[in-house]
Amino acid sequence: MLWLRDRALPLDRPLLMGILNLTPDSFSDGGLYLEPEKALARAKALLEEGADLLDLGAESTRPGAEPVPVEEEKRRLLPVLEAVLPLGAPVSVDTRKPEVAEEALRLGAHLLNDVTGLRDERMAALAARYGVAAVVMHMPVPDPKTMMAHARYADVVAEVKAFLKAQAERALRMGVPQVVLDPGFGFGKLLAHNLALLKRLEEIVELGHPVLVGLSRKRTIGELTGVENPRERVVGSVAAHLFALLKGAHILRVHDVKAHREALKVWSALWERSPSSD
C-alpha cells in the first residue's frame, strides 16, 4: 500500500502520478499552467484521464535550471494546491525547500516529493511531523544547475542503490512513515546511466520500498527515438515505462496520462489471461 495521510492506494497494480508543472521553464510544458484557472483545469483533465494522484511542482529542476526564490515558489504553488485538494485526489508536492514543503503539508498535501533525496534533514522532519510518506530521489549533487557536471559513476546502479538505501533508512529512523524510491532518471545521468538503471531496476526494487519511475518525455527518450519535441515523445515514454513495470516499478510519473492508462488496460488484460484461455 502507498500510505497517503487519510487514505491508501493499493500497489497491486501500477499507479499513475499525473504531472502538473506550475513553472514558466519546465522542459516540455513550461508556462502552460501558470495561471491557477488553467492549472485547475489541467488537474481535472489528468484525473479524468485516469491519474491516481497528482504531482504539483513550482520550480523546474531540469538540467541547468536556475533556482526559484522561496516566496515565488509559494506564490505559484499554494493557490493551485488549495484549489486542487477539494477535487479529492491525493496530491504530491514536488519541492526541495523546507519552507515550501511546510506550507504545502499544512494545507493538506498527501506526499512529499524531494528531488534532492531528503539531504536536508528538515524535509524528513516535516514528513515525520505531518505523518506523510516521502519520495527519496537520487541526484549526485543537490543542485539541478550543476548536476550534469557530476554524471560520473563507476557503477551507477550500485551507487544509486547505496544512496537510496542510506537516505531511506535515515528517513525511517527520523519517523517518516513510508518512503518511495526514485532512481532519478536524467538527474545527473547520461543516456548510458539511465539505460543501466532501467535494465537493472530490480536491484532498486529489492530494497523493499515502492519504486517510482519518471522517464516521461525526457531527453533519454528523445536520444533513443530521435524525436526532438518533448511533447511528441509519448510512445517512447510509454514503452520505457512498461519495461520499468516488468522490472518491478510501482508508480509511473507521467505527463500523458491517457496514453499510459490505455496502455495499462491492455497490459493488465494480457497479464490476467491464462495461457489456456487463448
From TrEMBL:
A GO cellular component term found in this entry reads: cytosol
Recorded catalytic reaction(s): these are: (7,8-dihydropterin-6-yl)methyl diphosphate + 4-aminobenzoate = 7,8-dihydropteroate + diphosphate
Annotated keywords: Folate biosynthesis, Magnesium, Metal-binding, Transferase
- Give the Enzyme Commission number: 2.5.1.15
Q: Which GO terms describe its biological process?
A: folic acid biosynthetic process; tetrahydrofolate biosynthetic process
Q: Which Gene3D superfamilies match?
A: Dihydropteroate synthase-like (3.20.20.20)
Associated pathway: Cofactor biosynthesis; tetrahydrofolate biosynthesis; 7,8-dihydrofolate from 2-amino-4-hydroxy-6-hydroxymethyl-7,8-dihydropteridine diphosphate and 4-aminobenzoate: step 1/2
Top EC category:
transferase
> Pfam families, alphabetically?
Pterin_bind
- Enumerate the transmembrane spans: none
Q: Name what cofactor the protein needs.
A: Mg(2+)
This entry's Gene Ontology molecular function terms read: dihydropteroate synthase activity; metal ion binding
Where does the Pterin-binding domain lie?
Answer: 14-265
Its biological function? Catalyzes the condensation of para-aminobenzoate (pABA) with 6-hydroxymethyl-7,8-dihydropterin diphosphate (DHPt-PP) to form 7,8-dihydropteroate (H2Pte), the immediate precursor of folate derivatives.
The record's comment on protein family reads:
Belongs to the DHPS family.
Its recorded name reads Dihydropteroate synthase
Provenance organism: Thermus oshimai JL-2
Q: What is the lineage of its organism?
A: Bacteria, Thermotogati, Deinococcota, Deinococci, Thermales
